[in-house]
Write a structure and sequence with these properties.
By secondary structure, the chain is of the alpha/beta class. Helices cover 40% and strands 11% of the residues.
Length: 321
């Protein structure tokens, strides 16, 4: 079964799975990256995402390597440019990544133009299909563990005809269940391999957070109950959302790529959805007192982010994804 497609516009069709390249050049060597790109392309994926700061964790020595690998793969495999959709990103304001334009203070025309030119040069391309601001990215993460989009921007996107390109459908691998093994999961898992060096990811998906643990265990139980692989459950959940055009996922091995591809074959039954929605509130109820249990959980365990940021960003009419 080939990966299904989504028509964004009459002239732009993307695969519903988008292969992210942020491990290319760090966790994945050039030959390994080429193999994953080959397998993804042959499975029907035509949508590939990168960024000027990749790979992660970001370092001056490796900055831009993921874009270089992606562009080199297209050239060496002689893939017609119109057969792939290429997305990349400009780095937002950062006081830390001084190796990127001195640590950009703002996203003005000068910074964006320079970033685009550098990305085109690294990938040796004439154009980029989708150019994105890397942050702020408050709402386009979407997974079983983070459903703020539903309460924050879904209605606006529906009325404006904007689709969601959802990233991190596996919550940095947490929803695969691998980090809950007795040994803490594989040593080469990103949250283990770069522990203490990947603050952005660790702050978002902190494995010591009791709600994250409880929610993940509930979803793992649902997958087991219905005879599904946890990765298939997570991917199928994201893709069933009516506003999701495609989801960006990462893979460092062929078997991880295959597990994600298998998620495209799954149709979640009403019974599975009922279990998901029922258990989405259970981890929240477990840590809230009786008074606060009456508040809407937004089907999301990140309650500290949801309500305030929804008000701020909806109030400023920020509905672009």
């Amino acid at each position: 079964m080939s990966v299904p497609l989504f028509n964004l516009t009459p002239n732009l069709t993307v695969s519903r799975l988008c292969l992210g390249t942020m491990t290319f050049g760090e966790q994945n060597s050039l030959p390994q990256s080429f193999r994953l790109l080959d397998e993804a392309f042959h499975a029907g994926i035509n949508f590939f995402d990168s960024a000027e700061m990749y790979p992660v964790p970001q370092r001056a020595e490796t900055r831009g390597r993921s874009e270089e690998y992606l562009g080199r793969w297209i050239r060496e495999r002689k893939i017609p440019r119109n057969r792939v959709v290429i997305a990349t990103k400009v780095t937002g304001p950062s006081g830390q990544m001084v190796w990127i334009r001195g640590g950009p203070k703002c996203l003005d025309a000068k910074n964006i133009t320079e970033a685009i030119d550098n990305s085109l040069q690294r990938m040796q391309m004439d154009y980029i299909d989708l150019y994105q601001i890397h942050w702020p990215d408050r709402f386009n993460s979407y997974s079983l563990l983070c459903r703020t989009f539903d309460s924050g921007l879904a209605e606006c996107c529906h009325h404006e005809g904007i689709s969601l390109l959802a990233y991190s459908p596996l919550a940095m691998g947490i929803l695969s269940g691998k980090y809950f093994a007795p040994n803490g999961g594989p040593a080469n898992g990103r949250l283990n391999l770069f522990k203490g060096r990947y603050s952005e990811g660790e702050s978002r998906y902190n494995l010591s957070n009791n709600m994250i643990k409880a929610a993940t265990m509930e979803y793992l139980d649902i997958a087991k109950k219905h005879g599904l692989h946890p990765v298939s459950l997570a991917i199928a959940f994201v893709l069933r959302h009516p506003l999701v055009a495609s989801t960006i996922f990462g893979a460092t091995s062929s078997w991880q790529l295959q597990e994600t591809l298998n998620g495209c074959k799954i149709q979640l039954t009403p019974e599975i959805i009922e279990d998901i929605n029922k258990d989405a509130h259970a981890p929240v109820d477990a840590v809230l007192d009786d008074e606060h249990k009456q508040l809407p959980a937004c089907c999301c365990i990140f309650l500290n982010y949801c309500c305030v940021e929804c008000c701020i960003y909806l109030g400023s009419n920020l509905i672009q994804i």
